[in-house]
């Protein structure tokens, strides 16, 4: 993967699939999810 490059990914239940530049698929397990709350104080 390239820093700041485009990312292709898919989520299926607790699995995250990421595809690299060579087309190789990498599978990861999602172990924790969090909710991001927007910061209203940002300018």
Main structural class: mainly beta
Number of domains: 1
Return residue spans where pLDDT drops below 50 for at least 5 consecutive residues: none
Largest sheet: 3 strands, antiparallel
Pattern of helices and strands: EEE
Strand content: 25-35%
Helix content, binned percent = under 10%
Question: What's the overall average pLDDT, rounded?
Answer: 88
Core attributes:
43 residues, mainly beta, 3-stranded antiparallel beta sheet, 3 strands, flat
Helices and strands, with pairings:
Blueprint: E1 8-12, E2 15-19, E3 25-29
Antiparallel strand pairs: 1-2, 2-3
Structural description of this entry:
The protein is mainly β. The chain has one domain. 0% of the residues lie in helices and 35% in strands. The chain has no helices and three strands. It has strands at residues 8-12, 15-19, 25-29. A three-stranded antiparallel β-sheet has the order 1-2-3, with no helix packed on it. A hairpin with a 2-residue loop joins β1 and β2 (15-19). It is flat and about 40 Å long. The N and C termini lie far apart (31 Å).
